[in-house]
């Protein structure tokens, strides 16, 4: 099934109704509005997927892939829809693993035609924001950056923090990376220019209230008791805006002229005020890093890829000064090309940005930079250029952002490690003694238990950081092996364990399961088998067949059935000092897996024996046996009960109740 749609019209005009096209228009905010997405075609008359793909128009538009439940799992745009969509279903062996996983989950696709690739880009941004598809790159950043808002459109402007940048005639400064930074800047400019920080209403309250403490200590012009004209007040606000705008050089010259003039007129106190303002601004200049001589508004973005994440560091440069920086983390970027990462980041980050600077510099190039520049120009209403600088000062700034992104990745990994349980010295020692590639934080051990080939049971225990984690223990009743073949039984257990893990990984990749819900993930750092050479050989072959690279070790016992050493897949014994913590840990693991396997086997055997005893009683069927065991728990309790107890408490027929009572008491 697929969806044919319609082109996007000019702003403010309705689209004409034509075959297979609905109505659409652009609203007052510049968003594309589609009345209907639709004509849905079904697979009639034996249409094949090949025919469906061949019928896609060679026009620009947006496509979205759906899973079997109709959920949108990917949204993309294309200059030529037909070529782009067909690529997913052709030469799939050449696709990256992530794309192959997505294609495997596609049950349906739809598309919307647009007038141009630019309109497709705008619609793509809207749809990704709306549906947040699993296979699209998604930013872990829903932050609304704070701004300083100055209501210059009012007669007596106010200065305060704002989370939104509106087209309301006010002047905005920012974005800042934290509300604390905004409040610090507001506090600084208020003290520097003696702007009221209280909730006074001007001009209504002018000259009608008692002066506050700030007025008494000379940190406020006190319009509450002193009349001040609109022109005078706006002049103060104008100077404050110049300060916030980073125009410190002109401001310092102006203050210096005022200071010299006051000195010549012997107004030394007034001159001292101008001097103090100059010193405060100079101290601020020393703190703020000047990283561009162009004195322009720019964003510089550096990227650093680590495993399946990309760390993006954005430098907010305003009038050549580094106003702030911010880290954004992009998920699911493994195997993605640099240009694709840049494009997806820019589209999502600037989709709802309160402020878009005229210049944006990125570390990587992308074939979509020109298209994104057009989109941001339309969005801002002024010329915006997105580019990848190759040399000079612009490249140096981007390099600085990259270094910060790299350091952020290191800090993120360290923080994540610290949030886990600290890895004990014993685990670190075991890593060295077993020559493992990483500390065996998660160790899994397996054992098989049976009685003469009957009731064969496999057990799996888990030790995390050297301690038993019983919530992860699992039991397996052997299903495919007849008799007492421990090797095949062990292979079945480990195969089933890894199969469960793989199924959970696929569910997580498709968005049908949260990682926290998984019962067989993560996979172990190493596996201990309660057995020797034979077990190691069979399970090693299984691992190779399953393409798993998990270190294997056999737990070797002495003649008295006590732990002696470990054996690796090369059938080499690894000895430990009997007094070492590593040896004590291995002994604990072997004892625990044996205990867990035997306990389960005993319980299974006891239930089997109990069931077989009750089967000998006339009139007692499976339902009655289950009812008896659920209520009385043990055979002893059943034996001690009276026939009246069976009738009264369980509602068993009086004759059958008598049979049960007589069975136990005649035998005794």
**Poorly predicted parts:** 1-48
Cα-atom radius of gyration:
37 Å
DSSP strand count:
23
What percentage of amino acids are in beta strands?
15-25%
Written account of the structure:
The chain has 668 residues and is α+β, with helices and mostly antiparallel strands. The chain contains 20 helices and 23 strands. Strands 16, 17, 18, 19, 20, 21, 22 and 23 form an eight-stranded mixed beta sheet that branches. Strand 20 (526-529), helix 15 and strand 21 (552-557) form a beta-alpha-beta unit. Helix 14 runs parallel beside helix 15. The model is unreliable at 1-48 (pLDDT under 50).
Task: Give a brief description.
Helix content is 42%, strand content 18%. With 668 residues, the chain is of the alpha+beta class.
Keywords:
668 residues, alpha+beta, eight-stranded mixed β-sheet, five-stranded mixed β-sheet, 20 helices, 42% helix, disordered N terminus
Layout of helices and strands:
Elements: E1 2-3, E2 24-26, E3 32-34, E4 40-41, H1 49-54, E5 61-66, E6 72-78, H2 81-88, H3 97-104, E7 108-113, H4 117-131, E8 147-150, E9 159-162, E10 171-173, H5 179-193, H6 213-216, H7 230-244, H8 248-264, H9 268-287, E11 298-306, E12 309-318, E13 321-331, H10 338-349, E14 359-362, H11 369-380, E15 385-387, H12 392-419, H13 425-434, E16 442-451, E17 454-464, E18 467-468, E19 474-477, H14 486-509, E20 526-529, H15 533-545, E21 552-557, E22 563-567, E23 573-574, H16 581-614, H17 622-632, H18 635-640, H19 643-650, H20 654-667
Parallel strand pairs: 11-14, 14-15, 16-20, 20-21
Antiparallel strand pairs: 1-4, 2-3, 5-6, 5-7, 8-9, 8-10, 11-12, 12-13, 16-17, 17-18, 17-19, 21-22, 22-23
Helix pairs in contact: 4-11, 5-7, 8-9, 14-15, 19-20
